[in-house]
Amino acid sequence: MNKAAQAYFNTKVSTTDQGQLLLMLYDGALNYLQQARDKMLAKDYANKGILISKVIDIVNELSSSLNMERGGDLAVNLNNLYILCTARLLQANLKMNVDSLDSVTQILSGLRGAYAQILETPEARKAAEDIGNRLQPAASSGAAQSFAPPPATAAPRAQAHAAYGKNALRPESKPQAKEQEPPRATVRQFVPNVNAKNG
């Protein structure tokens, strides 16, 4: 990517709210899926594998952004869908299975569409507008206005926002303590005991 395009992309990402970033992740995954499908049909195996790996990275990012504590059943179901997508992507990569790619495209398209609808609700648009107004410089003093959270109102499908652990349209009023990561499984290398007697 040339320097101008990279600078544009970096600016776009740094000035985009979290809800729009989520949509960008879905769009990127869907774009790579289409490219991978084209490479698979053209029997360009190396590039197909690279593109599928990019989709897997995006799906893993989507999965890791879920807040399993606050998201309830929705977070669990989304996580299971992401696991299914990853399994199908691996199958598509190993067995050159276009149907597996197409099924992942359907799943991610559906999730992207549902989340886009959430962002288009009147409550979500008003919250985004309120945030934008607070970030504008004050006309009289030339200083930025304070960045306070919007009044607490029940947003439709709030559970979807909670599932991602981030409210895409409302800033946090105070910094949250860093959550502890769950313990990770470790893999140990098997070292045979050469001194043991075979019995």
Explain how this protein is built:
The protein has 199 residues and is mostly helical. It has a domain at 17-135: Flagellar protein FliS (Four Helix Bundle (Hemerythrin (Met), subunit A), Up-down Bundle), CATH 1.20.120. Helix content is 63%, strand content 0%. Helix 2 (18-41) packs antiparallel against helix 3 (45-64), helix 3 (45-64) packs antiparallel against helix 4 and helix 4 (68-95) packs antiparallel against helix 5. The longest helix has 28 residues, at 68-95. The protein is globular and about 50 Å long. The chain starts with a helix and ends in a 36-residue tail after the last helix.
What topology emerges from the helices and strands here?
Blueprint: H1 3-14, H2 18-41, H3 45-64, H4 68-95, H5 98-119, H6 122-135, H7 158-163
Helix pairs in contact: 2-3, 2-5, 3-4, 4-5
Quick overview of this protein structure:
With 199 residues, the protein is an all-alpha fold. The chain contains 7 helices and no strands.
The tally of beta strands, per DSSP, is 0
Distance between the termini: 62 Å
Q: What is the H/E order?
A: HHHHHHH
* The CATH homology group name of one domain: Flagellar protein FliS
In CATH, the topology of one domain is named Four Helix Bundle (Hemerythrin (Met), subunit A)
Alpha plus pi helix count: 7
- Gyration radius (Cα, Å) is 22 Å
Helix-residue proportion: 55-70%
Principal-axis shape equals: globular
CATH architecture of one domain: Up-down Bundle
Give the DSSP E fraction (strand runs of 2 or more residues): under 5%
What is the class of one domain in the CATH system? Mainly Alpha
Q: Low-confidence parts, pLDDT < 50 over ≥5 residues?
A: 138-156, 166-174
The major sheet is characterized as:
none
Q: Which structural class best describes the helix and strand composition? A: mainly alpha
The chain-level mean pLDDT equals: 74
